[in-house]
Amino acid sequence: xxxxxxxxxxxxxxxxxxxxxxxxxxxxxxxxxxxxxxxxxxxxxxxxxxxxxxxxxxxxxxxxxxxxxxxxxxxxxxxxxxxxxxxxxxxxxxxxxxxxxxxxxxxxxxxxxxxxxxxxxxxxxxxxxxxxxxxxxxxxxxxxxxxxxxxxxxxxxxxxxxxxxxxxxxxxxxxxxxxxxxxxxxxxxxxxxxxxxxxxxxxxxxxxxxxxxxxxxxxxxxxxxxxxxxxxxxxxxxxxxxxxxxxxxxxxxxxxxxxxxxxxxxxxxxxxxxxxxxxxxxxxxxxxxxxxxxxxxxxxxxxxxxxxxxxxxxxxxxxxxxxxxxxxxxxxxxxxxxxxxxxxxxxxxxxxxxxxxxxxxxxxxxxxxxxxxxxxxxxxxxxxxxxxxxxxxxxxxxxxxxxxxxxxxxxxxxxxxxxxxxxxxxxxxxxxxxxxxxxxxxxxxxxxxxxxxxxxxxxxxxxxxxxxxxxxxxxxxxxxxxxxxxxxxxxxxxxxx
Length: 497
Hints:
33% of the residues lie in helices and 29% in strands. The protein is an alpha+beta fold. Among the domains are: 13-86, no CATH class; 127-163 and 444-484, CATH 2.40.50.100; 250-354, Elongation Factor Tu (Ef-tu), domain 3, CATH 2.40.30.
């Protein structure tokens, strides 16, 4: 085939051949200094001697070499680039160090005493110095509470009252047992004393003293409790908790509104036919309600009214349907005879509750409108000198018993009889039972364990508490008289503290 290479392509091929020949001719003449760019201008004879090639090109093997090692073209380029970059970085580092050294400055100053202050900053939650989660060992209904969230309470303040009827019954039983044990002990002493000498005046006197001292001790204990002697509803309270009252003071007035009465006038002539026990028809003024009652009393003589009429007063008793009060008025008809005028309803029965001791009224658990039963304990009075009063009564009893024992011990047979010792053991057990029963009652009262502020109230009157699985406390009290907090401090900052 003919040669169809263009003139342009022909020139390009000639140029490539020329370049190739140039590389083959001169490559083996390159020295380290020529390639690296470093040379020495010193004209010493040693420098002018022919230099051994460090980097060159082996024509025979067609390989570049560095020293004794033959390498490829690409690898040679990489090595040269790394060497150049290393030189640049070294120059920068030296420059940086030189610049840094220039910035260091020192100032001379005379020695003097100074205060070194180190400020530590941080954040933390402020906590009370003391706090208490109020719990209870008892389960049951909360009958009352005495505080609300935010209140400041003192240590020992009453917070909650749990329903304690069972514990109160147990305490009452324990008191009865103690009274019986005390009486049994006295009886044992008396019995033995009587066997020694029924005519022994000293023994009789000691027996009387024991009985008197025992009665006084029991009265001293019982008189602290204010009891109602009748049933009814509280009409009015004359005192409040914290008041100082004297023995015999009226604490409350009672009324029985289950029955109401009318003391109503009849004309003297009409009243002649009215007899006690007769049926009466009573009309309530205003409402028009009709109530049936019975004549309970009739006055023995007539009296004159302001209108100069002669009337006889008849007392009619009715059963209260539930709405009658002493503010209501009524009229009556008996044996077909109508009364001469209306009258105001009255309570059939009224009474008072009085205190049997002098001192401070610490507890009053009734309010106006409450119903009470006969014998119910409605309050508690603390003697002005509580400890002294109780101790004196107990000591008087103990002294009386001791005197009787001494009197009876004069008999030989007394010391050989175990009845008194057994009675004493029973008395000791009864006294221990009182203490346990009282402790059980006290467990139903939750008191403040510390002085502080109630920050959370989880339970209130009316709630039912199961202490076996309760997770939340009844309330939480914080002592905010002092607070504390803690922060994390870096050890380098803490080293100067």
